[in-house]
Amino acid sequence: MPMGYLEGSDAISVQDLALMRSTGRQHVVLDVREARELEICRLDGALHIPMAEVQARVGELPASRPLVVMCHHGGRSRMIVGFLRRAGFDNAVNLEGGIDAWAREVDQSVRRY
């Protein structure tokens, strides 16, 4: 993984996230999908706050650790990363391709929808 891959970047690949998880690098995955989407599939250990609730619940997020925001394909999470960065979460990054890319490229046991 390139040095400083989170600094100055607003997105990471699913491969980067897989490496973070496998090496134990401190981070939080924020899943902004709806509850009905989590019934289909989820990423173990992710914090779930639906997109519509993030602004009201921003105090629940750790500002000191990298925050990887994900949704189904990356569109909603990209908007949330913009909001979080404006709110001072400089370590917030979008997971490119969302959980769908994770299911295709990292863990094929994750159900796609």
Q: What would you report as the Rg, rounded to the nearest angstrom?
A: 13 Å
Measured by DSSP, the beta-strand proportion falls in 5-15%
Total helical segments? 4
Annotation, overall tally of beta strands: 5
Order of helices and strands: EHEHEEHEH
Structural class: alpha/beta
* Order of neighbouring strands in the sheet with most strands: 1-5-4-2-3
Separation of termini? Answer: 29 Å
Q: Provide the number of structural domains.
A: 1
| Share of residues in helices | 25-40%
Runs in which pLDDT lies below 50 for 5 or more consecutive residues are: 1-7
CATH level 1 class label: Alpha Beta
Blueprint (SSEs and pairs):
Layout: E1 11-12, H1 14-23, E2 28-31, H2 35-38, E3 47-48, E4 67-70, H3 75-86, E5 92-95, H4 98-105
Parallel strand pairs: 1-5, 2-3, 2-4, 4-5
Structural features:
transferase, 5-stranded parallel beta sheet, Rhodanese-like_dom, Oxidized Rhodanese, domain 1, alpha/beta, 113 residues
In summary, what is this structure?
It is built from four helices and five strands; from the N terminus they run E-H-E-H-E-E-H-E-H. It is of the alpha/beta class and 113 residues long. It has one domain: Rhodanese-like domain (Oxidized Rhodanese, domain 1, 3-Layer(aba) Sandwich).
